Amino acid sequence: MGRLLLHRLGGLLTTLLLSSVVIFGSLYLAPGSPENVLFGSRAPSAAARAAVRHQLHLDRPLPVRYWDWLTGVLHGDLGSSMVTGQSVASRVGSGLVTTLLLVGISMVLVVLLGLGLGTVAALRPGRIDAAANAATSLSVTVPPFVASTVLISVFSVKLGWFPASGIQPGLLGRLHGLVLPACALALVSCGFLARVTRNALREQLDREHVQTALVRGLPRRVVLRDHVFRNALPPIITAVGLLTAGLFASTLVVESAFAVPGIGLLTIQSVAQKDFPVVQAVALLLVAAFVLCNAVSDLVQALIDPRLRTVGRTA
Question: Which segments constitute the ABC transmembrane type-1 domain (predicted)?
Fold first, then answer.
């Protein structure tokens, strides 16, 4: 287990390093120049432009700028915003808590609805299974921005139950403002998890040893617990890890639709302003979230299935 943990940690660090090279290079090689954001519509003199480029270290070679940025990140310094002058850590940190809370609420909804609907569909073939499949088919086809628009028009504009945009101060106000964004995020994911759960359970139910146990008169509850649900967990856990990582990327759309001050909205604004240090930090956070979620799902599967720990030792 320890070797598997070290293997996943090494993969995380390698992925982050390679991603940092790609992110840093792609941003600074993109069309346009960062100092143009500071000048806006004004036409600066050559001396003023050169002074700003020197202040932002844009006159240095790209590898040198990357090395300076990477060493700063390793020391906890993510740089300063080119637009506001604030530290990138403070700008990202202020929205990270909101985004983590949004993703957490969404995943609670996804797990409860996805597992529940998938389990019911697997154990009740026939009309209930067909109705569940129809619901999940509709769920997975609705884009997050469409779900956001529908939820705002129904529950905010017509019913007035939730705010249409923004969040209120305090924990309760924040939770109240995140209900609709969380539902918009969870809509597609719960349908996907329901399908994975249904297929995994049905596959285990069709296994010969499960049918034999039922024929021999073992209680159905015991057979489902010990032979069906336990053996169906690995694909379900993998799906939960992938969906959690995907929700971080989906926050860019949903937070913009609901004006939620998280890292998703911050990313959209920073890209429009060409605030490269902020975009780099958020992009690395998204990559780290994706790799970390998958690593955690692998470790949880290893705890459930000892055979996966053996694979970790031989790798």
Answer: 96-297
